[in-house]
Amino acid sequence: MFANLPLNALRAFESAARLLSFKAAAAELSVTPTAVSHQIRALESWLGLMLFERQPRQVRLTEGGQRLFHSLHGALLEVAQSVDTLRPQRSTTHLTLSTTAAFAALWLVPRLGRFYARHPNINVRLDTHCEVIDLHQDASVDLVVRYSLEAYPNLYGMCLFDESFGVYGSPEQVALAARQPPTLISVRWHNSKLYAHGWDAWCAQAGEAWLTRQPCMREYDEEHYALQAAIAGQGLVLASNILASESIASGLLVGYRPDVQVDGAGYSALCVPGRERHPPVRAFFQWLGEEARLSGVPPVLAMSQA
């Protein structure tokens, strides 16, 4: 059944397509770039179609190449994971999660001890760089937690919870705000669409005239800096109910007009289809779902492929 499949050429193609480089694929496979090029040309000849557009100093996948890569990458990943289950298990299994620094610091890390208590042999490595990772291209990342308005049709996902924004401050600052206009703390987001309404929308909904009085405004690049400023008594912060939840539970922050909330986007856990069956990833998905339920919002599993 599989006797005629050019397995070496397919492996070379998968590596080159994932890395978008014949040279990088050659280094990964411990062969020469010429050997990778020969394997891919032989595969293109066998299929009767071009898989790459060759350009000066780079290559790009054709439409046919994209289709082959998505199916081949998932199949090879599943084979690799099946083989791993047959090997003697190491004492520690690693899992790499990519997310934002704010979500990691304010929601994930405070809860991570409960995951380690249940799975002491799984070591979670957090990648909190700002760049959005293409999971189909970067096999070093097992799953991501993203905050977005977008859907991800080519990934397996779990919708953890939707977010709303409220105004929070230290107990002293909240009490003071009832008597005089407060200092307002805001976040300068990299993606402005996700914070487009901000204080304007909240004040309009609350009927507060703070913005018409030229308020003192403090702005930070990251949510956890803004929350720390509010905890320190520097003013009131417009913040995510998800990211502020630990500080609220501990009494460091309280809501000002907690009935007034502005809708945000949603948090989702995502991975390449098939990777959710890898034991550490499966365990982490299950734990995330339980933590989301403890937060009061049941998670929704979804998987779709192009």
Briefly characterize the structure.
The protein has 306 residues and is of the alpha/beta class. The chain has helices at residues 7-19, 22-29, 33-47, 63-86, 101-118, 171-177, 198-206, 223-231, 245-249, 279-294, and strands at residues 52-55, 58-61, 93-98, 122-127, 143-148, 156-169, 184-187, 217-220, 236-240, 254-256, 262-271, 300-303.
Describe the structure.
This protein has about 300 residues and is α/β, with parallel strands linked by helices. It folds into two domains: about 5-85, Arc Repressor Mutant, subunit A; about 90-305, D-Maltodextrin-Binding Protein, domain 2 (3-Layer(aba) Sandwich). Helices cover about 40% and strands about 25% of the residues. The strands form two sheets. Strands 3, 4, 5, 6, 7, 8, 9, 10, 11 and 12 form a ten-stranded mixed beta sheet that branches. The chain has a two-stranded antiparallel ribbon with strand order 1-2. A hairpin with a 2-residue loop joins strand 1 (about 50-55) and strand 2 (about 60). Helix 1 (about 5-20) crosses helix 4. The two termini are about 25 Å apart. Residues about 300-305 have low confidence and may be disordered.
Cα-to-Cα separation, first versus last residue: 26 Å
Shape: elongated
- Secondary-structure class: alpha/beta
Low-confidence stretches: 300-306
Beta-strand share of residues:
15-25%
Whole-number average pLDDT?
85
